[in-house]
Amino acid sequence: MSLAADARDAVRDRPFLLDALRAGVVNYAAAAAFLDLGDDEAVAAALRRFADDLPEFDPESRDVTVTMRSGVGLVGEDIDESDDDPVLSVAGVELASGGPLTAIIAEGEVDTTALTTVLGRLDAESVVVDAAGVAGDTLAVVVPRRQGAAALQVVESAVSTIYA
């Protein structure tokens, strides 16, 4: 493979660097040194060419309603069983009413890009995420009860404008 192909692959292995290239906020020499692929000047030039070919971030305004549901838990662990529809279910593991957690539910124009944005923002705010998922027009994140209010604000802010 060529050095340019190696540089593209290395960037794709590090999504934060791909986002920074798309945003135009990369010090190419520092990125080349970080990637440690060989001749830093050649890698920096390859990164500049790669960045020129990437689509720019395009902020999208989304129509989303965000709500908070306190008192959810893991069925079989936090609660014995629940007659309510699960808040989140993955491969037979269900979170439903009756536990020590809080669910933040976003409904509307949500997708995996919105979920990625939400999780990144929650991580940046040091909010612990116990579970998360998106299906159809619903996105859910489950957090410790004490972090529910903070998570609600972060999710509302995150889904209002998604950078795709």
From TrEMBL:
This is ACT domain-containing protein. The lineage of its organism: Archaea, Methanobacteriati, Methanobacteriota, Stenosarchaea group, Halobacteria. It comes from the Archaea. InterPro entries: DUF7523.
